[in-house]
Write a structure and sequence with these properties.
It contains 19 helices and 22 strands. The chain is an alpha+beta fold. The protein folds into 4 domains: 159 residues, Aldolase class I (TIM Barrel), CATH 3.20.20; 140 residues, no CATH class; 112 residues, Jelly Rolls (Sandwich); 83 residues, Arc Repressor Mutant, subunit A (Orthogonal Bundle). Strands 3-1-2-4-5-6-7-8 form an 8-stranded mixed beta sheet. Strands 11-18-13-16 form a 4-stranded antiparallel beta sheet. A 4-stranded antiparallel beta sheet has the order 12-17-14-15. A hairpin with a 2-residue loop joins strand 9 and strand 10. The two termini are 53 Å apart.
Amino acid sequence: MSEQGTTPSAAVAAADAAAAPAAGGAAAADRGTIGYIHSIETMGLLDGPGIRTVIFLQGCPLRCAYCHNPDSQPLRSEAATEMTPAEVLALAERQRSYFGEEGGVTFSGGEPLLQGAFLYECLRLLRDAGITTAVDTSGFGDPNWYRQVLPLVDTLLLDVKAFDAERFRDLIQGSFATWVNFADSLVENGFEGQIWIRHVMLPGWSDDEASMDRLVETVLPLGYLVDRIDILPYHTMGIEKHTAMGRPYRLEGLPPMDETRAWELERYANRRFIERLAAGRETGAGTRTPAPRRKEAEMNQVRESPYAVDPDTSQIWLRDGIDLRKLPLVRHLSIAAFEEMMSDFRMLQVRKGDVFFRSGDPADRLYIVATGQFKIYRYTVDGREQILYIYNPGDFVGGLNLLTGHRYVYNGQALEDSLICTMSKDFFDRHCLDNPHILRQILEKSYDRIRWAEDLISRLSSANAGIKTAELILRFADRYGVQTPEGIRIELNLNREELGSYAGLSRETFTRKLGEFRELGYLDFSGNRIILVKDPDALMAYFEG
């Protein structure tokens, strides 16, 4: 939010203002949906994952005592820039090369949810363009747009300004019940992303472990959606703006927050949050909803989301040391379903080389990799093993089999000591079939498998051993490679025979071609399982040639 955002430099602000048409006039009215922009920051590193373009929207209904951009509070301002969603997309496209895999566009403010129509159009265009999105919100926006906006948000930066009604009113001049209602209805309104909790820490107000415990209690109902808790140290950069606007600064004389202490308490809060989620029902310790939140929520008839973690029935999320909330396929199950899943899940501890399902086995369980790696394979007509796919932590196999009732037509074998979670078909039918998030992941994984199978067909159809080898190494580099100064590092749990099988070659032929590529300087080895791709362009030229 604006109180802790970074004001862009004059050069950046001028450049971005020049990129958008001037405010007002008939021309602006002809442009369709219009957003009012306070400022824009490029190359932002603190407002969501990766490198981001941060667009600070004008307008905020709250009056935070520590706000350092009070000029962003009015929705209409002569200093604001008008932009259309198409112009926001164009700005993001110009910055896309800097985003990397995680970066994207963050909408902050002010309060971005106040401009619901504009925010929705921006998010829709960015989603269609494949650009990730984040929204920094206090939860005080236009509720009429929540169902349209929230499904399009990848990361929600959710501000927790205070932990009870009285302090919320005194510090923020807003209703704590409104925040509770927003937080508890996130999934009900279609939110499927991750949440970063943010709290501005003020000296003497929340700079102790007891306050961090209250913060944890406040956000605990969001449960497994919370990815991290960020503490933002209070600073005094807003005093000058308040003075210039003729406003009294309500925290006059309060010193800036010590950043080292804030960092220590941030670590404490994150650790306590994980401990509370993992706390067992048996202990009953620290599992009560904070009285101020409960009282005000009940008075205002705040509806609890069925997906919210109920602190009164806190679950043990850990099985064999694995935090089941981190498994992508089941992350958005309801709490009731998670509760049942804890007894349904079987954890298979398999050794390297163990086959845990075979071709012809009934598809009565779905398999999810918790740790380790496994392959699926079948035998060709001449009795040779043909690897079809490799699964890594978080991957799963069997979704379509459970949907169709087909038996497995391949074998599953561990490539290293692994922990495999299995889900029954009965549980899948009752809790996953009507969950769009889970079904979408199954479809995405199926599409990925189809593309990989197409590549496999392409490899096997070629008679050229060099082409087969080069194509496989490039696919592995793209899927598993890590860029290092020495080259693209590929670490695999496949031996030369298995790699040859994957490429459709004998062990000897595959090893010979690797040796030739090494002599040419295309790649190198580090031990028996690590390949360093030193010249991917040469391999690509060899493959394409």
